[in-house]
Write a structure and sequence with these properties.
By secondary structure, the chain is mainly alpha-helical. It has one domain. The N terminus is likely disordered. It is globular, with a radius of gyration of 18 Å. It has 11 helices and no strands.
Length: 184
């Protein structure tokens, strides 16, 4: 089978951009902020905090995200429960923090973020980590219900997962004054 134009990496990137565009503004903001924190792309506190409370949550996020390199190194090569335990334990903890921030409104946004934080090899484990984190008692019952209802049967029971790494990593974009840009 030959690759058609619609199967190329550009089309996959476009699909990722469209998926991101479908998230709420708050979810988009949280994903961009999270990627800045995870990959030290920018000074996340200076760029993203609007007040002291948000600065404090970004500092906490830094502490949780310090575990990401270890989590990436622990991705199991098999579906063995013994191999999964050290990986899932840490992944669920970090996931519970992110879901507790009330900015990821469902599994699709969680999966989008965590494919970038952890990598494509984590895809088989994301539904179980999401369900475990979304079930934790630190979340209000209505929030737990909404999160758990957001995972589709297809996502929860997928027979296989793509190994293709994500290519679109959204970043902060400075607003351009339209009046000034037209004058040039």
């Amino acid at each position: 089978m030959t690759k058609g134009k619609s199967d190329g990496p550009g089309m996959m990137t476009l699909a990722e951009i469209k998926e991101f565009a479908g998230f709420s503004a708050a979810t988009q903001r949280y994903i961009r902020r999270s990627l800045d924190v995870a990959f030290d792309r920018k000074d996340a506190i200076a760029l993203w905090s609007r007040d002291a409370v948000e600065a404090t949550t970004i500092k906490a996020q830094h502490k949780f995200y310090d575990k990401l390199p270890e989590i990436r190194a622990l991705i199991p090569d098999s579906s063995s429960i013994e191999d999964a335990e050290p990986f899932l334990t840490q992944l669920i903890t970090v996931s519970a923090f992110d879901l507790g921030q009330s900015r990821l409104d469902g599994f699709a946004a969680y999966r989008f973020l965590y494919e970038r934080l952890i990598g494509a090899d984590a895809r088989p484990w994301l539904p179980s980590a999401f369900c475990a984190a979304a079930s934790m008692p630190h979340l209000q019952p209505e929030r737990r219900k909404a999160l758990l209802q957001s995972i589709s049967e297809a996502a929860a029971t997928a027979p296989g997962w793509s190994k293709r790494q994500p290519s679109f990593y959204p970043e902060w974009v400075e607003k351009v004054d339209a009046d000034n840009s037209k004058a040039r």
